[in-house]
Write a structure and sequence with these properties.
single chain; six-stranded antiparallel barrel; Elongation Factor Tu (Ef-tu), domain 3; globular; mainly beta
Length: about 140
């Protein structure tokens, strides 16, 4: 039996940043579309009261960084992939466009260093000032978890 719309009332959810990106990338136009296209090393500066949440992180760890793409447009539902007007428009859920109903970014990074509230990472194409919503480890094989 199909669920009714009333089974899922629209709600707002409060999400507070755990930190912010500090990067030499200052503007969307300067940022590579994906990290493997030239993202420079960057830092994630955690809120000081969350320092304990980073306990156990070490250089070499692979992490998933979830960001709030604060300069993304939330009213965009379809785009030309990679901004190429020669390609057909596609729904944003099938792309990595920063413009989407909930502009959440997902970035696979390598942790280079941990220094107090600051994590230095490689492979983060987010621009300076981007809010970081969460950090999660990339899981290894089952026997190493």
């Amino acid at each position: 039996m199909p669920e009714q719309e009333s089974d899922h009332p629209e709600q707002d959810y409060l999400v507070r940043p755990v930190g912010w990106v500090a990067s030499p990338l200052a503007d969307r136009g300067d940022a590579p579309r994906q990290a493997d296209e030239g993202a420079p090393p960057a830092r994630i500066v955690l809120r000081p009261e969350l320092r304990e949440a980073a306990a156990g992180l070490a250089a070499g760890d692979r992490m998933l960084v979830l960001t709030w793409l604060h300069r993304g447009r939330r009213d965009v539902l379809a785009v030309h992939p990679r901004g190429d007007t020669g390609r057909p428009r596609q729904g944003v859920f099938g792309t990595r466009s920063p413009d989407r109903p909930n502009p959440i970014g997902l970035h696979a990074v390598t942790l280079l260093a941990v220094d107090g509230d600051t994590l230095t990472v490689d492979g983060l194409e987010a621009i300076d000032g981007t809010p970081v919503v969460d950090l999660k480890p990339v899981l290894g094989p089952i026997d190493e978890r």
